Amino acid sequence: xxxxxxxxxxxxxxxxxxxxxxxxxxxxxxxxxxxxxxxxxxxxxxxxxxxxxxxxxxxxxxxxxxxxxxxxxxxxxxxxxxxxxxxxxxxxxxxxxxxxxxxxxxxxxxxxxxxxxxxxxxxxxxxxxxxxxxxxxxxxxxxxxxxxxxxxxxxxxxxxxxxxxxxxxxxxxxxxxxxxxxxxxxxxxxxxxxxxxxxxxxxxxxxxxxxxxxxxxxxxxxxxxxxxxxxxxxxxxxxxxxxxxxxxxxxxxxxxxxxxxxxxxxxxxxxxxxxxxxxxxxxxxxxxxxxxxxxxxxxx
Length: 300
Known about the structure:
Elements: H1 2-5, H2 8-22, H3 26-40, H4 49-64, H5 71-93, H6 98-108, H7 114-117, H8 122-131, E1 134-137, H9 139-146, E2 151-155, H10 161-173, E3 177-182, H11 193-199, E4 206-209, H12 224-232, E5 235-239, H13 240-247, E6 255-259, H14 263-269, E7 276-280, H15 291-295
Parallel strand pairs: 1-7, 2-3, 2-5, 3-4, 5-6
Antiparallel strand pairs: 6-7
């Protein structure tokens, strides 16, 4: 129970935010919140937090009739990230270790997460974030693994972040087949196929849907086609906290690339809040149940 309780106000606040983005009707806002509060009493019936988050945002869609309340914010984030693309490419090229730079750019793209940073002056903090080192970086292990790999699957996270991922995709696609997976339908500000196309990802990777509409690649909710890709890929890179929560206990090896933005995620990875991680999974870093509520929401 305690894994959820400290994060519930944040989840409710985000649901209200989404409802207000979708409509100005305060009566609808009240109905959304009434249903959302009732759903929280049933949280134990959800076996992972991304599923609960998906169900909460389904209330907003049902009551407002708007399938993508964050559409304008996502478009703004993508446009802003595209404007910043020359800057991040300059950063990526200023060090001989192109892989390390590309990984850091990709991880730093998480600052485009409007679910957490909707009022952030992105340009003011971007360079400072890029300069932060990884707290954990399994790059050397990854370099050995990619020597034997043909196909690499990257599971994307937020819409604006997809622009930052292009640097890593370009690096990997020079010698590997790269697949970029995104959400099947709009959920919070996560990237869909349409968003990935707007970001220009198709120039470096094949874009696919996970078939899952939760804010994390919950495998049992993903399509058979995606599950086959996930199982068959030589390497998998999972972006962001929601995907970490959904995949941290998977039986196959996965590299997690993220910024730890809440205490529970940080504790699970044995890092400090706001530190960057590129880590090959192990059974020691399973995400505890209920984590997504405190991670994807301000608290994924």
